[in-house]
Structure formats: C-alpha cells, structure tokens
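Handoff note, outgoing to incoming analyst
You'll be picking up this chain. Sequence as last confirmed:
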Amino acid sequence: MADILPSIMSPRDLQQLSPEQLEQLATEMRKALCEVAATRTAHFASNLGVVELCLALHRVFDFSRDRLIWDTGHQIYPHKLITGRFSQFGTIRTRGGLMGYPNPDESPYDLFMTGHAGSSVSTALGLASGDDLCGRDGRRAVAVIGDGALPSGIVFEALNNAGFLKKRLLVILNDNRMSICPRVGALAEYLDFIRTNPWYRGIKTQATELIKGVPMVGGQMERMLVNVKDSLKATLHGGMLFEAMGVRYFGPVEGHSLPNLIRYLELVKDQEGPILLHVLTEKGHGFKPAEADPVFFHTPAPFECDDDDCIVSIKKSSSRAYTDVASSTIGSCMRHDTRVTVLTAAMCQGNKLEPVREEFPDRFFDVGICESHAVAFAAGQAKVGCRPIVDIYSTFLQRSFDQIFQEVCLQNLPVTFMLDRAGLTGPDGPTHHGAFDIGYLRLFPNMVVMAPGDEHDLEAMLPWALQHAGPVAIRYPKATVERHAGSRTPIELGKAEVLAEGADGLIIACGTLLGAALEAAARLRTEGIDVAVINARFVKPLDTELLLARIDAAPWVVTVEENALPTGFGSAVVEAINDAHATSGLAAAAVVRLGLPDRFVEHGERGELLGELGLDASGIAATCRRLAGRSPTAVGDAAPTPHHAAHTARP
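Most recent structure output, in case you need it:
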C-alpha cells in the first residue's frame, strides 16, 4: 500500500520529505509502474531507470518556472506520478486516459508532446533563448536525453549552437547503455570508455569523500574539486568531445543514489553557459527481471510476478502480426539474394529483426536513432549494386524526408522501404500513428508505393520490390495478419485486383482495411446491396485502367485507407478521375473517401479507433448503405460523422 505517493499533488510536496521518505517514495513509484505494466503493454524498463533522476530534478528545480524536456518521452511515467496525475495513472495508454508520452493538455509540467528522439536539446535551447528575450531572468532549461538518442544528428546541431550561444542550459545525459536494444556506434564506445575509466572513477570517489569530511567548506571545496577534476580529465583525454563544442562536461555520476544526484544537480544548477551532466543509470533498475532483460521489458506483454519479483506468467499473444510476416520475408529474400541488405534505426526488436541479425550479421546494419543517415547510407549501398531494405516505422521515416528525395528518388536507386506501423498504432497515440506516409511518399517521381491487403500480398510484394529497378515503399500496420481466400493475381507494377463483384456500388480498399471492406460487402449482400471490392495494392502508380473503368460503371464509390485523407490514397483516386474527366468526359458519380481525419488521432486500442472513425466493417457498411439510399437505423450501423469521411462529387 502506497503511503507517500498518493499525497504528492505537485512537485512542491517533495520539498517536505526527508531523505528516507524520498527513498520510500522511489520504491512506491516503482510499485505503481509494475502495477500498470502487469495490466497492459506499456513502456516499463526505461521508466524504472529514471525514478531517482526524476525525483532529484524536481527536488532541485522548480519546473513550474524552470523548463524540463524529456527525450524520448516514453520515460515520462515517474514525472507524471509526481505532477498531480497519480490518481489517473491507472488509465495510462487507454482510450480517454493519460497519454504514454508528455502531453501539454494534461499538465503544465509537460511542455512538448515528445515521441521521437533527439529534439530535446534544440527545444530546451530555444526555451532558454526565448526566456532571455522575453526578460524572464533566472529560469533554467533542462533537457534529459538518453544515450541511445544522443547520436541523432539534430543533437549535435543543437550542442554546436549551444556552445556558441552560451545560454544557461543543462543537458542530462541519461546513460543506461541502451536504446530499446543495446546502443550501437562509435559514440557508444566513447561513453563506455568514460564509464569504465578506472583511474578517473577512483580519484573522483576518493577525493569527493575526502572533501565531504571537511567541515564548513565542504560544499565550496566540492564545487572546486568538480572544476579541477574536469579540467584534469579534459587534459588527460586530449580534450573532451563535449568540451570541444563549448559544452562543459560533468560526470559520470551514479544515477540511482538520490543524495548523490541531488548534490550534483545543486552543483551545476546555477553555473553559467551550457552544461552536460553525465548520469549513469540502469534500464529496469529496481525490478530484477527487467534488470536482467531490459530489451524484453522495454514494452513487455502484461505479466504477473510474486513478492520476490519473480515472473509467474507472461500474457503473450499467439497471434501472428504483419511485422512477423515482414521479418520472415526479409530473411527469405536475403537467403536467395546475397545483394540484399537490411538497415534499421535502433528498432531491431520492434521490427522483429533479431533472427535476421543473427543469420546475416554482415548484411544487417543498425545505425542507431539516425533515420536520415540510414536512408543516405542505403542509397550508397544501392549505387554500388546492393539491394538495401530500409525497415523503419512509418512515423520515424518522416525524419529522412530529404534523403528519400535527394539521395534515393532523384537518383532513381533501388532502395526498398518497409514501413512498419503504418496507420493507427493504438496506445502509442498521435506521436506514433503512421498517418502521413502515403502523402509524403507519393509526391516523389520514381517512387512506387504499395499497400498489401493481407499476408499474401506482403509476402509477394517484397520479392517483387527487390527486383524493381527503382525505389519502392511497402506500408503495413501494427495488426494481426489476415489472409483472404480465393484465387489471387500475381504482383505486377501498378495493377490492382478485383476480389468481389457487384453492380450497386464500389469499394476500393488500400491496404489491410481490405478485410473490413470485404466484411462490409458481405453484410450488404445479405441486405440485397451488391458491392464490388477492389484491392488497390498500388498507391503509385494507380491502376487507372481498371479503376476508372469500374468507377465509370458504378453508381457510387467509396475509397478506404488507414492514412490521413489529405494527399492520401483517396485523393490520388480523385485526381485520376479529374485528369480522366479533362480528356474523356468521364461520367459523374459520388466518391466518398474514408480515412483518417485532418487532425491528430488520440491514443486507444486500434480497433476502438477504427470503429470511432468509421473505418471498421460497420462504418464502411453504413457509408455504403447511405450512398445506396438505405436507412442506417434499419440494421443498427451508424454512419460515420462528417469529420470521419470526405465526400467528393465527381464532375
């Protein structure tokens, strides 16, 4: 039973706690994290690792005035617990409940909705600069960034600028030797060198203990020791990386000792100029199973454990997901073609590429959280004859927009993009929904954009893409696989397939909402409404020959996609109709586009969200029924509200 945590209404309440009570509060916070992780999939190990850091920051700073940015935002849970949201904490990552990332709508202590890594130093520097310009003297800006996010290019852009501007900025480097998986790269090796340097760690510990024993002058002497020690260290190392950029480096500091953390934060709190405090933490700290396997416990399936923190059971799903199909198909293609490589950006586990990494270590490249680099790197490989697969979540691939344009499409290079988590990602919410990839990919000349309707399509599309002479993108959702029965046509460039016939209307499905479209058509058929269903397969190039002929013969048309409606698949269809009308006078008909509305969609289970947006079988059937002139109330399906669909009257 929590004794202290329920009484924490704001970080100000921490000031009244004794050191012993702070330690008890840390224990209670970890208990609250365990209770949530036992009931639903949630970010777990990363939050366990920052409990003491969170408490120390809020004890030393006043973030009702000062500024705090957490990077990446999935380590926000302890912060939420002590900023007035404990009573709601059980709702986290559920529809209508707390978001699993920072959310300014929830609390003034959340300044940005941060779900992607690397931007914290830039935004914190902007906050510091803006406060200075607005005359808000004395405020401090703090960015907490993990070592996995540190190699992101934008971080070094920000540090370079910070070293020049000399603003008061504190960067906390939360070094737990992990991203989601173990971190990679030369910078990781550099941090490990600092972490494990025995001479430096030994002299720091001994000297600090000596100075602390000196009465009255201990604090001043310790501050002097920190400055002397870091100057000596910079000399011995030939110039610290961060110091060379104009950012003063302090640390490394033990990150699970509250007194130690508080002491160091007090030391650097009022120092001028940009400072980086290197804090050593352990991902999963305080929960033995997570300490032993921080990769699995990053976002574990719900579990039960006994009083000794021993796992009793894990509620794993036995369902096969599209990510599983993609991973196994990648492995198969690599076995058959030695030119094929695979690149990911710190998402080996999320993309389920561990078997590929183990079987093909020489052709597997995890570049860290550096999506722009991953795409340009792949372009280089393609230029010399490789067939690289860039396997990145849809929402993260956005970060490499310019490299897709310049290094891949402009050069017409055979790079294949596997866009995992395209569409709604469920409880991760708007920072992670893959809502925009169709729009930002179909813009580019030479790019082929594909959307498998089911498992069969995904298995066939990747081998086809690897034989194509230019860039190809394949988008698929975070969802359980479906496989639709019947004879299927082979994959051909720009060719759709008809899966159901009907003269009363037409549904054109883009991607894995094909199953919902087929189910809607089956329901309508029992009501005497015969609707044809087309599996589009290709967003670009469209199968205009088939689609326009079918559209011309249909009384009404519904396009269905799990993507933002502006610039999406439905827009591409309407553009094709307009172009055809300009030259051939295509007859008029009603075209309704179903997809994600022009707003950021909240978090919730994917099925819940699809239902609310009119993108499940009931919603699609209701739209078709309305177009056919049938009453929706007669069969119990409510038509989607206006912001869920866009209606286009064909000229």
